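re: ur question from yesterday

yeah so i grabbed the chain u mentioned. its 569 aa long if i counted rite. heres the sequnce exactly as i have it in my notes:
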Amino acid sequence: CVSLVAGAAAFVARAPISPSLLPRTDGRSTTKFASSTVELVEYEELSLPARAGRPLKVAIAGGGVGGLTAALCMLKKGFDVTVYERTAAFARFGGPIQFASNALSVLKEIDETLFERVMDKFTFTGTRTCGIKDGLRSDGSFRMTDDSISYLWDPEAPADWFVKFPLKECADLYGLPYTGVIDRPDLQEILIDECKRINPNFIKNGNGVVSYESRGKGKGVEFTMEDGSTADADVLVGSDGIWSAVRNQMYNEGGIKNTSKNGKKRQGCDYSGYTVFAGETVIKTPDYYETGYKVYIGPKRYFVTSDVGNGRIQWYAFFALPPGSKKAPSGWGGSARDEQADPEENLVEYIKSLHEGWTDEVMTVLDATPPESVEQRDLYDRAPEFLRSWADGNVVLMGDAVHAMMPNLGQGGCQAIEDAYVLTEKLAATKTTAKIDESLQEFYRARILRVSMVQFMSRLASDLIINAFDTPWSPHDNLGKSWKSYLTFFWKPFLQFVIFPLQFAFLYSYYPTGNISETAKALEAKWKDVHFESAEETFALAEEGVVRESTPSFFQKSEQPSTVLAARK
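ran it thru and got these structure tokens back, copy pasting raw so excuse formatting
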């Protein structure tokens, strides 16, 4: 055995050294694979501002919030980034999107200017009272009461608020900015503008990615667009939404939006069991400045309202209905708006009929909503991908393309932003093209547990509220007498003191900025005055007879008026 080793060493010592095996000086590294015939494969070194090599070339399919955030992260690292977006041009469309404290921390870590511009357009909700209200017992006056159980022994004690959420307390725990909302068009404009400051030609519109071919380790990926043209990159990022073309190929899902006969599964997504109606209105409720968002609970449904800035209230009505229970148009999120099932039907009156016996607070908001602005969407979500990686060679999925979730916790966009940041950090640490596929697998492993927990909690929130919660039991009336009512009542202290504090503490626990409590408090103080002035201006216009233009709605792709109200009397 020793003689064999010695002989091999002597052979290597006598063998002439090929120039091709000497260290390279042109930014490339050489790796040798052992086989019957020696094959040399070259991998290229990847640069950063302080590292030699060439920039990593990244193609991003989809120019939504996740894709644009990833583009900005990567451009700031010096990557060669191109976004391929299927829409012909960006237009102002889509309603407000919630950014929780964890997402705001990531935005600030990505870019200080980006964070400041987002804050200029932001409406804080987490600084005010948010929580669950009794959809039947709230007295209709929008009064502010506590969420104690004193109504059990005092029939005069208010039972309006069931449980309040510790949003501010959990943000203060980590020293983070408070949860709030920003209009999606404003966010997209900011992200596009910041990307264009680095590379004015970073985005290509009107030609989305439809398929790809990963060429193997270190050899990049070739992808095909809608018009049949092809391009290549080191990495393809599938950030093309819940009905992702990249995902469809990676997981062999049988076609984009491929739907089962019963409508309960679409391109690998399960129908959640819920459909949601949505609308937006301008109304000054007595609690407008004191509340952020409210969830009214009742039998088999719930109704959510949220301040979204400039005097506007956004609402959602969730119902347990079969898929395809079509009533309202669905131009949700800027997609092509289809027609109302019955053009003559007043959708506000229809939704009110489904809330018969509910508090006048719900009816007041609905009565102020233009019926033609109401839209609807069946809700689909995805199970966590524990058994399938998010990456296939040099291709990776992120955002809704791989972990679409129910909207109850407002974490869909937040998790896409976390994806963008973590993916960029993993790729920035990749020194040669030989390591790209490994880096994409590291990204999957780094994100799967946290994202899966958020998916689970988002789905659980819907299931509990609709299927397990009901009007809480009270000894003073007959509004809550089912077994669900008793269960809801007994859940109250656990929700109030254990479950919700742990839930929000977990959601906010990813914060790459570290503690920035002084920044958070300064932002809140500055925002209060701006919020009051903009809302009062809107309310004054409404009193003068200027009404909100209801068509096109806030979901539909459109050019918005210069103010939140259209000049129409």
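noticed a couple things. The chain has a mean pLDDT of 86. also DSSP finds 14 helices and 22 strands in the chain.
anyway ttyl
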